């Protein structure tokens, strides 16, 4: 009978993968990930059948973590502006609090090693946000920009905001508010 897998070892592998993918991209070797986790490389493959499976699971874990952070205390009954500002604040705060995770998810998002099935599953965590954007567009609150454009602008402004906050941490609240104002004025009617 096979021994049950250890959740702690799986978590250690994923934590190491975050760190190394953030630093080295998806080319980070599994031997380095296993070594950083304090495990033999063969043990890594007990938990993940292949490097691609590891990267896809890491992508899904990071998307789920980001989605949970953004949607925590989400004001579903608030105005479109309030809801979008909540999403913005959650996105920026998560990126600030988890810089390696933010770098890793950006690396994974552009990797051809992430399957379409994983991309769809990862997007499911943001279904409520997509629905809010569509509703806001149909009600005339938002300009008629494609959701992909709004997402790209959100990513770019988040990067700029996080870069400024890293330089001047005492101005975190200021830059977060200023970034949202720029975003909102660019997408709202």
Automatic annotation (TrEMBL):
The keyword Flavoprotein does not apply. GO terms for molecular function: DNA binding. Gene3D superfamilies: Tetracycline Repressor, domain 2 (1.10.357.10). The keyword DNA-binding applies. It comes from Bosea caraganae. This is TetR/AcrR family transcriptional regulator. InterPro entries: Homeodomain-like_sf, HTH-type_TetR-like_transc_reg, HTH_TetR. It comes from the Bacteria. SUPFAM superfamilies: Homeodomain-like (SSF46689).
């Amino acid at each position: 009978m096979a021994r049950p897998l250890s959740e702690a070892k799986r978590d250690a592998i994923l934590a190491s993968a975050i760190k190394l993918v953030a630093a080295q991209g998806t080319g980070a070797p599994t031997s380095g990930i296993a070594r950083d986790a304090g495990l033999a490389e063969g043990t890594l493959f007990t938990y993940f059948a292949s490097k691609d499976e590891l990267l896809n699971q890491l992508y899904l874990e990071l998307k789920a973590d980001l989605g949970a952070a953004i949607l925590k205390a989400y004001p579903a009954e608030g105005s479109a502006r309030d809801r979008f500002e909540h999403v913005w604040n959650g996105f920026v705060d998560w990126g600030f609090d988890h810089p390696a995770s933010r770098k890793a998810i950006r690396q994974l998002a552009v990797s051809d090693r992430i399957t379409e099935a994983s991309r769809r599953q990862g997007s499911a965590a943001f279904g409520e946000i997509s629905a809010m954007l569509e509703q806001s567009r149909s009600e005339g609150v938002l300009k008629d920009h494609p959701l992909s454009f709004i997402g790209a602008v959100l990513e770019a402004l988040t990067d700029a905001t996080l870069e400024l906050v890293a330089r001047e941490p005492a101005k975190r609240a200021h830059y977060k508010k200023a970034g949202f104002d720029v975003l909102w004025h660019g997408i709202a009617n």
